[in-house]
Amino acid sequence: MASVHNPFTGEVIASVCTVEARAVGTVLQRARAGRRVAGALSRAARASILERTAHLIERRAESFAHLIVSEAGKTIVQARKEVARAVNTLALSAAEARRNAGEVVPFDAYEGSEKRQGWFTREPLGIIAAITPFNDPLNLVAHKLGPAIAGGNAVILKPSALTPLSSLRLVDTLVEAGLPEEIVTVVNGGADIGAAIVSAADVRMVSFTGGFATGEAISRTAGLKKLAMDLGGNAPVIVMDDADLDAAVDSCVSGAFWAAGQNCIGTQRILIDRKVYESFRDAFVARTKLLRVGDPSDEHTDVGPMITPEAARATRAEVDAAVAQGAVLLCGNHVSGSLYTPTVLEDVPATCTIWQEEAFAPVVVLQPFDSFEDAVEQANAIDYSLHAGIFTSRLDRALTAARLLQAGGVMINDSSDYRFDAMPFGGFKYGSMGREGVRFAFEEMTQPKVVCVNHISDVVQ
């Protein structure tokens, strides 16, 4: 058994059964049974189950939101938005089950194939291992289960040990909506059972959201199978001198400190034209200081706790190290239990961890630039990237930035943390593998099968 703690109070809110690596055979046996059952479900049945699940969650939205608050520490306002997104994710998955069946292949368009016609279908991969993080304990699980079920797969789900309760409730709701229970096998446990699942030949795809070190370990262990990974980012946002500064400040404050900064596309490095740097900096710091930090169940709280007190203390240590190397602390860097105050830095050396790596914390770095080219170069200087943003009133500059910025998504006049659940989502450069977003995940989780008919005789009987 493993205990689940409330990040704000530290109290134990539940215990879940864990699975040891030696039980992987039992897990795989159940998943194989789930694969057979899933393959027998019609597209209509899959879609109906996902639609009913979405409706059930929508009816119980407040209960789901409070569960997210209690296990993940998101504010109640943010948790409600996550629930609404999960409903949409499942509805999109249902639509994909009905829609994305394949297409006709024009064989007769090619010389020598005039007597052939055919099509391809999209068939399930079989068993998919889904490994999810703590920061979106409902919607990120829905992003893996929804497309996988829509595609006719069975899933072995390993949720974060810190936040397993929302995923368990989601799976229970899927079963209540009619999903045969063997289609999704939930495994709570440590790295040993995770490695055993990932390395199993029966598992045809691993869909992982989490850190780079774990992603690298999975890639070494997995063997010959599909990998889809969201390994985090260190998102830059460029603010040009012609931008609407008030809008940019508000958007970037939200982008930096949403979910206590525990957000893979959260704004971390804000690059500001030197001509407006001081105005932006002063407004940004003033707006940050207005954020209310505290009890996530309070409707007026803006920033809740980090996932653990250890995470908060580690963040403070990284900021202290940056300050020791010459960075200037403009506000924040206070720890109380798992609460960490929103923190703004400037003059951060490019060699600092807080500049080079994902903070995954409510920390943001402000940096002036002298030219657009300089801003793009700084934005692209990191080895991995998910999203980037730019604020400008010039369309030509916005489109040039969209072309030059090395990121999986470029948000124009928006902070980096905007995401719509139907759009393709994933990273650029190092560690980029696959895409989420319902349609794109569905296609990752299925495989084409071609059917070709050769009309041997032209004679009509």
Automatic annotation (TrEMBL):
This is Aldehyde dehydrogenase. Gene3D superfamilies: Aldehyde Dehydrogenase, Chain A, domain 1, Aldehyde Dehydrogenase, Chain A, domain 2. InterPro entries: Ald_DH/histidinol_DH (IPR016161), Ald_DH_C (IPR016163), Ald_DH_N (IPR016162), Aldehyde_DH_dom (IPR015590), ALDH-related_metabolic_enz (IPR051020). It comes from the Bacteria. Residues 3-451 form the Aldehyde dehydrogenase domain. Keywords: Oxidoreductase. The keyword Oxidoreductase applies. GO terms for molecular function: lactaldehyde dehydrogenase (NAD+) activity. Transmembrane segments: none annotated. Belongs to the aldehyde dehydrogenase family.
